[in-house]
Amino acid sequence: MEHRKLGTSGPDTSMIGLGCMGMSDLYGPADRAESIATIHAALDAGVTLLDTGDFYGMGHNELLIREALEGRDRDKALISVKFGALRGPAGDWIGYDSRPAAIKNFLTYTLRRLGVDHIDIYRPARLDPAVPIEETVGAIGDLIKAGYIRHVGLSEVGVETIRRAAAVHPIADLQIEYSLISRGIETAILPACRELGIGITAYGVLSRGLISGHWTKERPAAGRDFRLMSPRFQGENLDANLALVERLRAIADRIGAAVAQVAIAWVAAQGKDIVPLVGARRRDRLTEALGAAELTLSADDLTELDRALPPGAASGDRYTREQLAHIDSEKA
């Protein structure tokens, strides 16, 4: 698999990474054995980047990755961890904490759950409004000097925060949503990252399955699936968005590829500094997604996709209004 470098200061990684969140949380029930088999299949296929968060399943996801990595060369996997989100015993979200002391505490538990001596990329999941980003990044920088972390990452922050963070310590990458129907970063955030030599790890490249080619109007019947509350998955918004998927399907059929492969390949084609994260929870979905690495979209293909799904084409916001109000990357 092709490799890409995350920014000017970050590590080399496979051109596609595996997002592991859905194996533990937020997308309804997942099969543990199949999840581990999927991680194994990803590693065997040349995927090196595994993305997680210490709050995914309240530590469950880190323990799952630990089990999947047992008996394998730890240095063959780049582990990216988000921290800072606080959750209650019912799984509810109760705030963020990016104070330096909290970072040390979060990291200590993460290292123990993963069974490793260092984390490759460590990042606050969101901007903590009570803590200057300089303090957060400075604390991660101190932990890099101590040998517990290799690189600093950011997640869902805007241009001002990115610049302030980069002034304290080199930033490997910004993790942020980017897809054919979520293109907000193109206006200011992506240019700023390129100016500063910061890579992009793009999550939501299939818009949480919405533009995978597999989503239907039938809602998931069981489990806690936060997509049921997402504006893009509701009512008329869903109808309009699935109509966009049919435009995408027509192009994919012409190309001779799966819908998901075209959507992932489009993100990868936006620059060698962008690494798409796929959230496959099953080996068959992983196999399909990794087919995007072999797909080269022509200039005509890219033009046709832009015409079929122009910026702003999606119906509904990517998060609820309440959630967007707390996301730094959404602020002017």
From TrEMBL:
Keywords: Oxidoreductase. InterPro entries: Aldo-Keto_reductase (IPR050791), NAD(P)_OxRdtase_dom_sf (IPR036812), NADP_OxRdtase_dom (IPR023210). It comes from the Bacteria. GO terms for cellular component: cytoplasm. The keyword Cytoplasm does not apply. GO terms for molecular function: oxidoreductase activity. The keyword Oxidoreductase applies. Pfam families: Aldo_ket_red. Residues 16-308 form the NADP-dependent oxidoreductase domain. This is Aldo/keto reductase. PANTHER family: AFLATOXIN B1 ALDEHYDE REDUCTASE (PTHR43625), ALDO-KETO REDUCTASE YAKC [NADP(+)] (PTHR43625:SF40).
